[in-house]
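Structure in, sequence out. Go:
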């Protein structure tokens, strides 16, 4: 059996430790299970091997793939069709080398980053969960619907959802992008295994799991939403002068690598003797920045763009190095507080806007695929980072940056609402 087809994953049945396992596997396949994974957490190797060989024979009889959970040794010993590993098991790259190119390799991933890495390391499919609370793994954190959609949109291999899934909640996974569902107790814990599998298969086949055709936008704040680059340009020297301190000659160079206001405050204190505490310096800078931003105008076309984007059902987030409170206050002042799903800041994520992981965190909030998600920014470094994780990009050059710096962007706009022009 070569690699994995998405239809193998429609109804992925994972075994439990109950009695009469082989017969229940036969009934599960007879009811519609399209793949069997043998999970034997508590069994000895020899006991697990005996069960695995018996289950493999049933799977061969019905022509469905047989996957071993966790144990590369067991998968190789019985000649299984494939192996499924978690993040704490044998690394996917190592498993792929041992299994060879034709075996099925599944990898558990609860984040976009894990899913992308698993695909690069040779996974044929991703298992994501828990999507609902589950008694099988009571300590497992739930993967939110937006993260599930983002994972599905971030990889080119199928994704199967697992965790707390049963006939009553499968429909809640509609338009999530998954190829199918994996269940344990919903089949193997049912009084009538075949009937439970049959009911689940019917529900799965009539549920549209395809990702919705929704466009996501990540909008930079300073210079893209708000005409505030000037507010930042003299912020530090003006703050120093207000405190009776002369800026050091190379202040601009020292501040150039600061990803947010807090790190800029640290630089100022490292280079100058300032009164008060670090917190006083940060709060002073923040108060000055907020006052300046509140005095700035929106960039031309912003309200028109936001109105049209929301009218079309698009999802939007702000991605900024500014302070959350400043952004929230400015948006509220302009009547835009309800225009965005979230505000992502470099300070709160711990990621710079030149880091692709910043945009993967935006995808997790938006729940849109990278190919359907756009970054609008006036910083070429941010656009490059977004492209590195698959986003499309629109450069909006300010007066100080030549258009040639945006050569890699999908589009270059003079004002944001030009995006909707033919």
């Amino acid at each position: 059996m070569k690699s994995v087809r998405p239809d193998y994953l429609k109804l992925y049945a994972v075994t439990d430790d109950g009695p009469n396992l082989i017969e229940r596997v036969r009934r599960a396949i007879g009811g519609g299970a399209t793949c069997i994974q043998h999970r034997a957490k508590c069994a000895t190797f020899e006991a697990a091997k005996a069960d695995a060989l018996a289950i493999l024979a049933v799977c061969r009889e019905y022509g469905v793939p047989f996957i071993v959970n966790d144990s590369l040794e067991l998968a190789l010993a019985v000649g299984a069709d494939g192996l499924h590993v978690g993040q704490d098991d044998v690394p996917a790259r190592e498993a792929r080398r041992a299994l060879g190119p034709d075996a099925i390799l599944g990898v558990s991933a609860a984040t976009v980053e894990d899913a992308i890495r698993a695909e690069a390391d040779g996974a044929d499919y991703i298992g994501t969960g828990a999507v609902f609370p589950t008694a099988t793994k009571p300590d497992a954190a739930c993967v939110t619907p937006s993260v599930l959609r983002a994972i599905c949109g971030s990889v080119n291999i199928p994704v199967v959802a697992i965790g707390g899934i049963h006939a009553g909640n499968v429909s809640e996974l509609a338009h999530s992008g998954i190829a199918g569902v994996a269940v344990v107790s919903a089949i193997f814990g049912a009084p009538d295994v075949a009937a439970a599998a049959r009911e689940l298969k019917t529900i799965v086949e009539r549920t549209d799991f395809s990702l919705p055709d929704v466009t996501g936008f990540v909008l930079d704040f300073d210079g893209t939403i708000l005409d505030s680059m000037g507010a930042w340009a003299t912020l530090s020297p003006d703050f120093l002068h207000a405190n009776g301190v002369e800026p050091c000659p190379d202040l601009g160079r020292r501040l150039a690598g600061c990803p947010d206001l807090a790190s800029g405050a640290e630089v100022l204190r490292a280079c100058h003797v300032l009164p008060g505490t670090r917190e006083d310096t940060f709060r002073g800078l923040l108060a000055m920045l907020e006052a300046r931003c509140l005095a700035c105008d929106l960039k031309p076309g912003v309200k028109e763009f936001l109105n049209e984007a929301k009218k079309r059902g698009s999802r939007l987030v702000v991605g900024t190095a500014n302070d959350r409170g400043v952004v929230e206050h400015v948006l509220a002042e302009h009547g835009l507080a309800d225009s965005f799903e979230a505000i992502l800041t470099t300070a709160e994520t711990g990621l710079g806007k030149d880091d692709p992981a910043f945009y993967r965190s935006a995808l997790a909030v938006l729940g849109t695929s990278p190919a359907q998600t756009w970054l609008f920014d006036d910083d070429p470094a941010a656009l490059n980072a977004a492209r590195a994780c698959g986003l499309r990009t629109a450069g909006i050059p300010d007066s100080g940056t030549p258009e040639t710096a945006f050569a890699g962007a999908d589009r270059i706009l003079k004002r944001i609402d030009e995006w909707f022009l033919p």
